[in-house]
From TrEMBL:
InterPro entries: CHAT_dom (IPR024983), TPR-like_helical_dom_sf (IPR011990), TPR_rpt (IPR019734). Coiled coil: none annotated. Pfam families: CHAT (PF12770), TPR_8 (PF13181). This is CHAT domain-containing protein. Residues 568-820 form the CHAT domain. Keywords: Membrane, Transmembrane, Transmembrane helix. It comes from the Bacteria. The keyword RNA-binding does not apply. Signal peptide: none annotated. The chain crosses the membrane at residues 829-850.
Length: 857
């Protein structure tokens, strides 16, 4: 009897399983037959139920089928974020349960291909790269030529989106040679080729290619002619071709989003033709498509906007035709709002960094509007508003990471935040592995596997971010002017903050009592003057061979950067930007001199203490004292090689005599030892070689046996009070607008280092050793790195045993200190003072209330 019950139970479960699979397919087919917003809600409700019930692989596959169809419809609706989330879940489900072994379901066509396109559209270039390259690899393995070519087309679109047109052109030309490509694929490849040729200003070749028999669409032919005329700045001719293309608009298969973009292009052309009213009409037509309930009056509210980059184009253009400053700023604020919505879906810092250029341009526009408003009204509230626009577009990725760390410090036991950091570390670790594989001669299978893991991690991070956002309100890290001025008052310092734009350099000077805003025109002559000054430090001979040129350019840069405006201030915080990241402000000359004796020159360092920082938030951030002040040092030396650093041993001996330290010398200075020990020390010192990297190879720093690359630091916790990078080029690197140089200093800052002493160029081994000996002597006496940095330079200049040639600023001004004035705060003492303050307040309140209590009696 019991056996009978077991069999009945077994068959009932089996029947339920088959029914569940069938119910999922029926629900999907019902939706496909009648797609609308009501049926989408029904399907989503059913999907939520199915997720809780599915168990077998067949059921999982049915759910993948449902999600792919749901994602397709969401894409059609223009709900790109939800489409991405749905496709991502389908992709992860298909991979996690190895459903490719179950059936011949075409996951590339149904999921990965549209997902790759969506990543490109929303600016998530890292996930786009990983997705497209992964499915090209899968298609190659399975000999699916059609998908290989389709993937190649999407890869070309990706490279075009990030401005890599030479690479895009090369891939396109190779793909056009493939006989297996269909006619529609050849047309897409040909159109992509023309787009890249136009971007590279190869207009004649683009016109020839536009007559290709592969291009059958008259709409596309006229659009190409329009783009060529537009790039040639022949706007009347561009308008003629645009109107010809417009005649075919209704007969061309375009999505509503593509039609909206067409109207935006029309508006852009009318602006160039100085026809603002027509431009406004076109922008309103685009908004009406993207926001069906838009009334065509004024600006829409934030509530109706969503993550769609076409909105950004609309609001930026709308602002450009406004004569009212307030209206223009409101429009640009909507662009920033949509930009943040898009940003919320990017998990990799690479995607965030690549998308910052547009925000920078927009910030410059806002600062310019507010600068003019300030000049007209002398109302200083405009200055701090302008300052906030500058701050929000400077080192945003580093700032995001800092805010996340501060949130975790505030809620150290929150499992969501702990998991978030674990996933972020794993993401950076996998990214560093992927970069290493791509730099080497790795197999495509390894790269594909790492790409797939990164996509999966990205999905987990986005899911987690939604939960965290619901729990903790967003903190954008903005600082009030009063708080900033209080910090400056405590430090007895003045802030000199630069915004390096495309047309101007804006300089904010903020003290504890006042603030000012200056505009420095940025023409080719000024750019050349700044660049010439920076290049004086390319090698030791340049300055020594022409000392007069140095004195001329150093004083010229002092005036150009308006540094004389703070000449009476003893403590100055400098926030550099753009090219100014590579300027040694301490080596500027306060007046023109004819002397060739370096020690007698009026350097800024003789009059002022200069401390640098990444942005105002990093300066404002309270430094918490590390658990100990022991020093961890690495000195590979590289004996008997072309890399030998013989004077590095002198540095080690000095440090050992001045501070409690653990030093690893020569063969013991390995990368693995550094990774193992770095978290346990308050001060880190690396005396070695380093490289600023380039657009292909990331920045790195050398140990005896291996190099540590920039991306490897991103997954580390280095909460030291001070990191000293006594190595070449640790402060230079590939410069990204807004984020700054991608150098080793940034890597240590990202990892949590609170103060940094870094170098801006390749430095002399002996002079570095001498400066470091002086630095640690003074640092050990007062634990104030900013002061020790300045005194070590003055000591060097005053050392009579050093020749005049060696006192060139090339030898002593390479090291710059990033951090803050004052010692790090002891976290225990901070709490003590906090509770003491609370107690004092309570006592004062009691004393004030006592007379009232007696009166009432």
């Amino acid at each position: 009897m019991n056996k009978l019950y077991v069999l009945l139970f077994f068959y009932s479960v089996l029947g339920f399983s088959q029914n569940l699979e069938e119910r999922i397919y029926v629900a999907t087919e019902t939706f496909i037959a009648n797609k609308n917003e009501t049926s989408l809600k029904t399907l989503s409700s059913q999907e939520a139920t199915f997720k809780k019930q599915v168990k077998t692989k067949d059921e999982q596959l049915a759910l993948v089928f449902l999600q792919c169809n749901k994602g397709y419809y969401l894409h059609e609706l223009g709900d790109l974020n939800n489409a991405i989330n749905t496709y991502e879940e389908a992709s992860n489900r298909f991979s996690a349960y190895k459903l490719g072994t179950l059936s011949d379901f075409d996951i590339i066509e149904s999921c990965l291909k549209p997902l790759g396109n969506l990543y490109i559209k929303t600016g998530d270039f890292t996930n786009a790269t990983n997705t497209i390259k992964h499915y090209i690899f899968v298609a190659t393995e399975k000999k699916q030529t059609n998908h290989q070519i389709g993937g190649t087309i999407n890869l070309v679109k990706l490279y075009q989106s990030i401005g890599e047109h030479q690479i895009a052109l090369k891939i396109t030309e190779e793909a056009l040679k493939l006989s297996e490509a269909s006619l529609s694929q050849k047309e897409n490849l040909q159109l992509a080729k023309i787009n890249s040729l136009i971007a590279l200003k190869a207009f004649d070749q683009a016109l020839i290619e536009n007559y290709s028999p592969f291009i059958t669409s008259k709409f596309s032919k006229h659009k190409n002619s329009y783009y060529i005329a537009l790039q040639k700045e022949d706007y009347q001719k561009a308008l003629q071709h645009f109107n010809k293309a417009k005649a075919f608009l209704t007969t061309t298969s375009l999505t509503s989003r593509e039609v909206a973009k067409f109207h935006v292009e029309e508006a852009q052309l009318h602006i160039l033709l100085n026809e603002p009213n027509k431009a406004s009409k076109s922008l309103k037509a685009a908004l009406s498509i993207l926001v069906p309930n838009y009334k065509k009056e004024g600006l829409p509210t934030k509530e109706v906007l969503y993550a769609e980059n076409t909105f950004i184009d609309i609001f930026d253009l709308y602002a450009s035709i406004q004569t009212n400053t307030s209206t223009a700023l409101n429009s640009l604020d909507l662009s920033f709002f949509v930009s943040r919505l898009l940003r919320n879906n990017w998990t990799s810092q690479e995607s965030k960094i690549k998308n910052q250029v547009a925000d920078r341009h927009r910030s410059e526009t806002c600062i310019g509007l507010l600068f003019n408003a300030y000049n007209n009204s002398k109302d200083k509230t405009f200055i701090f508003r302008a300052f906030q626009y500058a701050e929000k577009s400077k080192a945003t990725v580093l700032t995001d990471n800092l805010l996340k760390k501060k949130r975790l410090q505030k809620h150290p036991n929150d499992s969501l935040l702990i998991k978030e950091f674990a996933l972020l570390k794993e993401q950076e670790h996998l990214t560093s592995l992927l970069i290493k594989e791509q730099l080497g001669t790795s197999q495509a299978s390894k790269i594909s596997a790492l790409s797939q893991k990164l996509r999966s991690l990205s999905f987990q991070l986005k899911t987690l971010k939604t939960q965290i956002s619901e729990k903790y309100p967003e903190n954008n890290g903005s600082i009030s002017i009063s708080d900033l001025q209080q910090k400056l008052k405590a430090d007895k310092a003045t802030l000199v903050y630069y915004f390096f734009g495309g047309n101007s350099i804006y300089q904010f000077i903020i003290s504890h009592t006042d603030n000012a805003l200056f505009k420095i025109p940025l023409n080719n002559t000024i750019k050349k003057d700044l660049t010439d000054f920076i290049h004086l430090f390319d090698n030791a001979a340049i300055i020594n061979n022409d000392i007069k040129r140095y004195t001329l350019l150093a004083h010229q840069a002092y005036n150009l950067l308006n540094f004389n405006a703070v000449k009476t201030e003893k403590n100055v915080i400098v926030i550099p930007d753009g090219l100014l990241n590579f300027v040694p402000f301490e080596a500027l000359l306060t007046k023109h001199v004819n002397t060739t004796v370096f020690s007698k020159m009026p350097y800024v360092v003789k009059q002022q203490t200069i401390v640098y920082n990444t942005n105002a938030l990093f300066y404002f951030n309270e430094r918490v004292k590390a658990k100990n002040n022991k020093l961890l040092g690495y000195f590979p030396v590289f004996e008997n090689s072309t890399k030998e650093l013989s004077y590095s041993i002198n540095e080690a001996k000095t440090i050992q005599s001045e501070m409690p330290s653990k030093l690893f010398l020569k063969k013991a200075a390995t990368k693995s030892s550094f990774i193992e020990n770095v978290q346990n020390y308050g001060t880190i010192h690396l005396s070695t070689h380093a490289s600023g990297g380039d657009f292909v190879t990331p920045a790195s720093i050398d140990f005896y046996d291996d190099s540590l690359y920039l991306h490897e630091l991103y997954s580390r916790d280095i909460n030291s009070n001070l990191v000293v990078l006594s190595a070449c080029e640790t402060g230079i690197g590939t410069l990204y607008k807004g984020e700054g140089p991608m150098n080793m200093a940034r890597g240590f800052q990202y990892a949590g280092a609170q103060n940094l002493l870094i170098s801006l160029w390749q430095i002399n081994d002996l002079s570095t050793s001498q400066i470091m000996q002086s630095f640690y002597k003074h640092y050990n006496n007062n634990q104030l790195a900013f002061r020790a940095n300045r005194i070590s330079k003055i000591d060097y200049l005053g050392n009579k045993s050093i020749s005049n040639v060696k006192k060139s600023p090339y030898y002593w001004s390479a090291f710059v200190f990033y951090g803050s004035f004052g010692k790090p705060v002891d976290s225990g003492l901070s709490l003590l003072f906090f509770y003491m303050g609370i107690s004092i307040v309570i006592i004062l309140i009691a004393v004030l209330l006592m007379p009232k209590l007696k009166t009432n009696d």
